[in-house]
Amino acid sequence: MTEAIRAEKLVKTFGKITALAGVSLEVAWGETLGILGDNGAGKSTLIKILTGYHQPDSGQVFVDGKPVELTSVDEARAFGIECVYQDLALVNGLSIYHNMFLNRELLRRGPFRLLDHREMRRRKARILLLDEPLAAMGAREARLIIGLIERLRARGDIAIVMIAHNYAQTLEICDRVVLMQHGEITFESAAAATSAEELLEIVRREYRAVRTG
Ligand SMILES: Nc1ncnc2c1ncn2[C@@H]1O[C@H](COP(=O)(O)OP(=O)(O)O)[C@@H](O)[C@H]1O
Ligand SMILES: [Mg+2]
Asked: Which one of 14, 86, 162, 182 would you pick to mutate in the ligand 1 pocket, going by the greatest count of ligand atoms within 8 A of its CB?
């Protein structure tokens, strides 16, 4: 599997808060990676660096194996990186997903399929970043979104990074998962090789460690 996007030792601080304490991560073409972790773990900050919204204090991002400076969201988009932010997803709900996936899918099936196909492919996001796409969704909407993500995953040429809350659901949708805690990746596994129980146990262990100090 060849790498689509890679982050090396990303550090990001906000004043005295260290949101990312040296995060390294790699996603291959055709791979769907899930990022799990509690609130404040640094998940959104990581995604926001990969999408050019924030710049890291140090560390490097690579696209297609080449070092890139993602100085803005437009710059990242030029590399084929598209993001649905947590805040945006909450505000606009399903309409964003319709814009991002559904319209394109419908167009591809339409009467201009042959004419549009190449152009659609060229413009389509190659690296898709989703920040809690299922947050604030009802069960029916969530199923629709999961279906869309699974269809994109099945294409086999798009790298998808998805932040999510539901461990079991994430393990179903993703090829691989990482767990973030306090600005670090503390666990990584193929989805098929771990379980919601194992992930929850790691998080519980940390709660216990904090409590007993
Ligand atoms: N723009 C910002 N200004 C100040 N602090 C921030 C900002 N963005 C995130 N943080 C802080 O960085 C830490 C990680 O936040 P975030 O990446 O949003 O975590 P997560 O998405 O895992 O909940 C938190 O302590 C959060 O309060
Ligand atoms: Mg977040």
From this structure: 14
Does pTM top 0.85 for this prediction? yes
Tell me what the pLDDT averaged over the chain comes to: 84
CB-based contact 131:84 (threshold 8 Å): yes
pLDDT tens for 111-163 read 444 434 444 444 476 899 998 888 777 788 788 778 888 888 888 888 999 99
Q: Which residue's CA is minimally distant from atom 8 of ligand 1?
A: 45
Fold (topology level) of 3-212: Rossmann fold (3.40.50)
Decide whether any atom of ligand 1 lies within 6 Å of the 17 Cβ. yes
Nearest CA to ligand 1 atom 18: 44
Domain ranges of the chain: 3-212
Residue closest via CA to ligand 1's atom 25 equals 40
Alpha carbon 81 to chain centroid distance? 11
